[in-house]
């Protein structure tokens, strides 16, 4: 399986009513050098200024970003290129990140290369350490900046640490 760590930034809590502003992905392997980054033009007039502010972009800047259909097709092609077998979506907050990526793939391309399921890095860590009160974020090496490639890379580093130092059985 090809684990692809994903992180998204949006201007609101749900896709459709609000927009995914940018996202990043990294193929989880020892090099962490296969990345994808995209900025997407809003698909809705609605946005929450505080949510948008997390991305570091203004509404005016986002209006010049790339068309969502083009971006999602490019992302699907990137996945085909880097995933030698079945791609697996994984993220720090898959309830949020998956919701946007899945919706955008189905809405703009008609299919989702990840299929119908996703993995949650935080839950995986909690299970490994057998403690639902623990958090994996101390395992990141790359600073969490809200640049989605940085954030995905930090989370991928944490997953590699789970494999190398915690004995997680995972085929990367």
Structural write-up:
By secondary structure, this protein is α/β, with parallel strands linked by helices. It is 40% helix and 17% strand. The chain is built from six helices and five strands; from the N terminus they run βββαααβαβαα. The chain has helices spanning 49-55, 59-62, 68-82, 94-109, 121-129, 148-164; strands at residues 2-10, 20-27, 35-39, 87-91, 118-120. Strands 3-2-1-4-5 form a five-stranded mixed beta sheet. α3 crosses α4 (94-109). The mean pLDDT is 97.
What is the topological layout?
Blueprint: E1 2-10, E2 20-27, E3 35-39, H1 49-55, H2 59-62, H3 68-82, E4 87-91, H4 94-109, E5 118-120, H5 121-129, H6 148-164
Parallel strand pairs: 1-4, 4-5
Antiparallel strand pairs: 1-2, 2-3
Summarize the structure.
The chain is α/β, with parallel strands linked by helices and 172 residues long.
Rounded average pLDDT: 97
Regions with pLDDT < 50 over 5+ consecutive residues?
none
CATH architectural group: 2-Layer Sandwich
Q: CATH superfamily assignment? A: Ribonuclease H-like superfamily/Ribonuclease H
Which CATH top level class fits? Alpha Beta
What is the alpha-carbon Rg in Å? 16 Å
Order of helices and strands: EEEHHHEHEHH
Count the helices. How many? 6
Q: Share of helix among residues?
A: 25-40%
Instruction: Estimate the strand proportion.
Output: 15-25%
Domain 3'-5' exoribonuclease Rv2179c-like: 3-159
GO molecular function: exonuclease activity; nucleic acid binding
Keywords: Exonuclease, Hydrolase, Nuclease
InterPro entries: RNaseH-like_sf, RNaseH_sf, Rv2179c-like
């Amino acid at each position: 399986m090809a684990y692809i760590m994903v992180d998204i930034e949006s201007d609101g809590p749900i896709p459709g009513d609000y927009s995914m502003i940018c996202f990043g992905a990294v193929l989880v392997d020892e090099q962490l050098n296969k990345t994808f980054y995209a900025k997407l033009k809003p698909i809705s007039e609605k946005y929450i200024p505080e949510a948008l502010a997390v991305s570091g972009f203004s509404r005016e800047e986002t209006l010049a970003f790339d068309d969502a259909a083009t971006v999602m097709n490019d992302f699907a092609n990137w996945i085909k290129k880097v995933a030698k077998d079945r791609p697996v979506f994984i993220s720090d907050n898959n309830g949020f990140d998956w919701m946007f990526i899945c919706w955008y793939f189905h809405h703009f391309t008609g299919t989702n290369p990840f299929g119908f399921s996703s993995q949650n890095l935080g839950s995986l860590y909690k299970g490994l350490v057998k403690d639902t009160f623990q958090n994996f974020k101390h395992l990141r090496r790359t600073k969490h900046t809200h640049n989605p490639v940085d954030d995905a890379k930090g989370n991928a580093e944490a997953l590699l640490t789970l494999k190398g130092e915690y004995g997680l059985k995972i085929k990367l």
